[in-house]
Specification:
alpha+beta; Nucleotidyltransferase, domain 5; 2 domains; two-stranded antiparallel ribbon; 9 strands
């Protein structure tokens, strides 16, 4: 049997003799699987332990009810995970790993893999637990079996951490990477796009608190403590502190599913589900990049009507105007540029000067907005370029001596 020292070394932990002597075995009548409410699976490579839980179909997680259907079509417009093909919610699995380290690399091992998915209109939670490091091959084999029905994985920062980590573990165990050719939606990217203007942090914890209106119980532990708690378990054999790790992982999975549902609502009807003007303009930018111009126009208009801090107000006016410029709807574009110019926006003054010079041949109006741009501009190099424009316009208008 592998010794405790060997197990810790396999995790990159090296203990001196004094430290090793301090390790004491946990003594309790309950086994670790009883304490953590685990079931056992046995495959060709050994024993696996996992927790399985069914979340009620009408479970309320913050503002999200799990009976709500995720709008997969709208989400696919943003994520482009299936090249336009349709997929069902039963083909989606949510994944989050708790690991022996937070930096990744070949020495980092996932010891708790949380999975969530819909089956028969119920949400199932699976948590695969690595009860000892030499059981990794058995756990990864079991993981591959559980993942067989799915085609799309949903994570939070999984493109940078969870999926590359699991790829490394599959390779080191001479296994095929189950995620090859899968679709992957990383909800961190959605959170950054939609709430970056309003929230200083777009961590899952911040999204829970500020957007989904979720408060975790006292069972919660901070993520940075997770690796240490697993090592403590290997040292002492006491599984009780790991209850907090299991709770942390469960909440990550359930909140990830709730965020996925909420994102679908936002993509389907952003005006209804976004009540902060900064979030509205973020959604407008997202839809503009997706080519959903009509939606972005309505969002920019709504945000302006709601009221915005001046820098965001000016930026939104210019984005709004630029869409009309591309459509050659000059009447609307000019209206918006004038609104921005009235707030000393140099770019809009220049846009108006160009419009009146080149399209209207109205050199007097072009002169007016060029002079306004010069008064507002603080960039000396830009001022020199504007003065050259001013000189040309003076010649064209006949005002130059």
């Amino acid at each position: 049997m592998e010794s405790l020292s060997d197990r810790l070394k396999s995790l990159g932990m090296h203990l001196g003799m004094n430290q090793t002597n301090k390790i004491t075995a946990w003594e309790n009548s309950l086994s670790f699987e009883e304490v953590l409410d685990l079931q056992k699976d046995v495959n060709l490579y050994g024993e696996n332990y996992y927790h399985h839980e069914i979340i009620d179909s009408d479970y309320q997680h913050g503002i999200i009810n799990f009976s709500d259907e995720p709008d997969l079509h709208s989400l696919n417009l943003w994520s482009k995970i299936s090249d336009g093909k349709t997929f069902s919610k039963e083909s989606v699995v949510f994944l989050d790993c708790e690991t022996t380290g937070l930096s990744g690399g070949t020495g980092t091992i996932p010891f708790l893999i949380g999975l969530g998915f819909w089956k028969d209109q119920q949400f199932h939670l699976y948590q695969l637990f690595l009860h000892q490091p030499n059981a990794e091959l058995a756990m990864l084999t079991f993981l591959s079996e559980v993942l067989t029905p799915f085609q799309v994985v949903i994570t939070f920062n999984g493109k940078s951490f969870d999926i590359p980590l699991l790829h490394t573990r599959f390779v080191l165990n001479f296994m095929e990477d189950v995620f090859t050719n899968w679709g992957h939606v990383d909800m961190l990217h959605f959170a950054r796009r939609l709430w970056r203007l309003r929230l200083s942090s777009r961590s899952l914890g911040s999204i829970e608190k500020e957007i989904l209106k979720i408060t975790r119980t006292d069972d919660e532990i901070p993520g940075w403590m997770v690796p240490e708690m697993y090592v403590d378990y290997l040292r002492s054999g006491d599984p009780n502190p790991l209850k907090g790790v299991f709770y942390h992982n469960k909440m990550d999975i359930v909140s990830l599913a709730a965020l996925f549902i909420h994102a679908g609502k936002i993509m389907t009807n952003p005006i209804q589900w976004l009540d902060d003007s900064l979030d509205v303009i973020s959604a407008g930018r997202l839809f503009e990049e997706l080519g959903q111009v009509d939606t972005s126009l309505s969002l920019y208009k709504a945000a302006i009507n709601q009221g915005l801090p001046l820098p965001f107000y000016l930026d939104t006016l210019k984005r709004y105007a630029n869409i009309y410029r591309k459509q050659q709807n000059w009447f609307r574009a000019v209206q918006l540029w004038v609104m921005a110019a009235e707030n000393d926006d140099v770019d809009s003054c220049v846009s108006l000067a160009k419009y009146y010079e080149h399209r209207e041949k109205d050199y007097v109006s072009a002169l007016h907005y060029t002079e306004m741009a010069i008064r507002c501009c603080v960039d000396s190099a830009e001022v020199q370029r504007l003065k050259k424009r001013l000189h040309r316009l003076l010649l064209l208008s006949g005002f130059a001596k």
